[in-house]
Amino acid sequence: MTTASRRWFGGRDESRRADAQAAKDAAAAAFYELDTAQRDLRISMETIAAADGSPAARQAGEGFAALGQRIDQVSHVYIEAVDAHDLDRVDLEGSVAARAREQLTRARDELVRVKGELDRFAQGLQPLLDKAETQLARVAPARERARAALLAASAALDEVRGKGMRADEFAARLAALGPELTLLNQGAAQHGVQETVQRADRILRDAEAIRVEVERLPERAAEIDRRLVSLRTRAQALRNRADRVDPVLSELRRRFSAACWQDLQHVPEQAVRDVARAEEQLKEAARAREEQRWADVAALVEAVRGALDATDEAVSAAQDRLSRLEAVARDPQAEVQRTRFAIRDAQRLAMEGRSVPDPRHARPLDESVARMERALAGLEERHPDYWHFLQEMEQVRQGVARVVSDIRGGRGSG
């Protein structure tokens, strides 16, 4: 009787131990599933955080953090239940095994419950995750395009250096993109999608600009060489022309009043000084060309071109002045007729569709007629100022042109 009873109770203890072990295995499986789901969701959250800075994404991050705290709590309960009972003990009592099964079952139920919360949270994240993955898909192509542009710029630099050109300026600009490339390689997880894509676009744009300029460098050097030769030739020609201004001035002094030539007296000396300065700048540009300081060369070439343009205009002004004064001295009426025609044309336009002209137009046109007549009368003086006469005619025609423009503008807006 006693032996049978012991055997019966021992069999019951074994059953309780088996139930406890089954509960432990089920809890371990639930724990593993929850841990795996949390790891997977953490990756999704990192994807969203890297690509999306919206309030919805920040709220999702806060929700995930709160879930993490609950996961830690139920995981702690599970681990305590496992540590509290050694189910492999041979002398494990049935009552202890029963308590262990009960605790482990509760721990498993909590793990499953929180796993359900995690699954529902993950389902709610799907729109944000889809959007983030779409954004992240832009990063890799943008990064590859930027790297390819850098490689192309570097290859172009090597090629022109192989032709004996230093291209130090472009090498420095290319080297300056190195830190940006380092940041780009750190990726969107550290800097965000938008910033990473924008950085890639900047690198692409800057590297492409460097490549284009480097590839044009041989052509640019040849063009600069041609311009330097052309400017030297032009400077010499202007020096020769400046030497011929004095005879023109002598002719002006001999035949016309002082008012017609006084403003031109400085032209010969000024032209010589300007040409000499331009020639010095050309020598400096040549030195910069030899040293391949392309930006300095370009600036000097433009300065010389501007100076020679101004000198050319000043030197031409003397001969042009003499030609115009000779023409008006021979026949002032040609200039008068030209001005009178402009006035009459404006008067006809002012009267179109009207019986009486608008005073805003009639008054300046009448004044133009009077001004023209006064200028013509001035030529009857003993020493006529033909240059003043020409300037007056030009100003009268400009005033008439303004009236015409005003008439047409008014009719167009009306």
Describe the protein.
The protein is mostly helical. It has helices at residues 2-51, 55-84, 94-136, 139-162, 168-175, 178-186, 188-191, 193-215, 217-243, 245-255, 267-290, 294-330, 332-351, 359-378, 386-413. Residues 1-10 have low confidence and may be disordered. It is built from 15 helices and no strands. The chain is elongated, with a radius of gyration of 47 Å.
Question: Care to give the gist of this entry?
Answer:
The protein is mostly helical and 414 residues long. Helices cover 86% and strands 0% of the residues.
Main beta-sheet strand count, sense and barrel state = none
Question: How many distinct beta strands?
Answer: 0
Strand content: under 5%
SSE pattern, N- to C-terminal: HHHHHHHHHHHHHHH
- State the secondary-structure class: mainly alpha
Poorly predicted residue ranges:
1-10
User: What is the share of helical residues?
Assistant: over 70%
- Tally of individual helices: 15
Rounded Rg:
47 Å
Give the overall silhouette.
Answer: elongated
Through-space gap between termini: 127 Å
The average pLDDT value, as a whole number, equals 85
